[in-house]
Each structure stands twice: as C-alpha cells, then as structure tokens.
Amino acid sequence: DYPDFSQKESYFEINGGLAISRLFKLDENTTCTPYGGLMVSKLDGDEDYEFTYHVNKRTEKDSGDLKDDGMFSIFAGLGITMMKTVGIRLEGRFVDQTSFSAGLMYFF
Predict the structure, then answer these.
(1) Is the pTM value of this prediction over 0.90?
(2) Which terminus of the chain has a lower count of CB atoms within 10 Å, N or C?
(3) Which of 80, 79, 75, 82 is nearest to 96 (CA)?
(4) Is the Cβ–Cβ distance between 87 and 47 less than 8 Å?
(5) How many CB atoms lie within 10 A of CB 24?
(6) Helix (H) or strand (E) segment spanning residue 41
(7) 36-80 residue pLDDT tens
(8) Residue 108 contacts by C-beta under 8 Å, 6 or more apart in sequence?
(9) Cα–Cα distance between 83 and 98 in angstroms, integer?
(10) Coil, strand or helix: which one is 91?
(11) Among candidates 56, 57, 69, 59, which has minimal Cα distance to 96?
C-alpha cells in the first residue's frame, strides 16, 4: 500500500554574501566570469505532511520546522556571455545544504 503524499511549506529566507569574480574575454563576443564567495543566510518556516493510505482509508498528518543547520555556506559559479546578449550561468552552493542551479540569460 503506497500512500498518497502531500506537503505544504511556509517559510522565508534572507541571505547575503561577499563574492569575488574575474572577467575573461574569450573572443570578440564571448566572456567568461568565474566567481565564488561566502554566503550568510537565515531560513525559518513550517512544513505540514499528510499521508493517505488507500487500503485502510487511514490518514496520517505530521508537521515540522524548516531551519538551516548553519548560517554560512560557500558558493561558486560560472557565467558565460555570448554575442553580448545571451548567456548561461551555473552555480553551486555548499556546506550546510548542497544545491545546484543553472540559468539562461538574455540581456536587453
């Protein structure tokens, strides 16, 4: 019996940091910018869980707190701009929680 699962979250996160970067011109239209730094963040919130079992029509509910284990993390990334209007970005955040993100950028 695999239950249905639902989760609701309500939280806020405030962060800021210090980064160092360097711009490298690869050719006439392409630049590469590696960067990295230290981030300080504060996460606070609540989450609610609900499991519904189909065989015995039973529902279980639970709740918890969303909190960071620590306030400090390290981040590093790379931005590449092509034709001065299009770019991509890759970034990782490490230490307390590991996360990765990627993005496509259009400059106007």
Answers:
(1) no
(2) C
(3) 75
(4) no
(5) 10
(6) strand 30-53
(7) 999 888 878 888 888 888 777 777 888 777 777 778 889 999 999
(8) 85
(9) 32
(10) strand
(11) 69
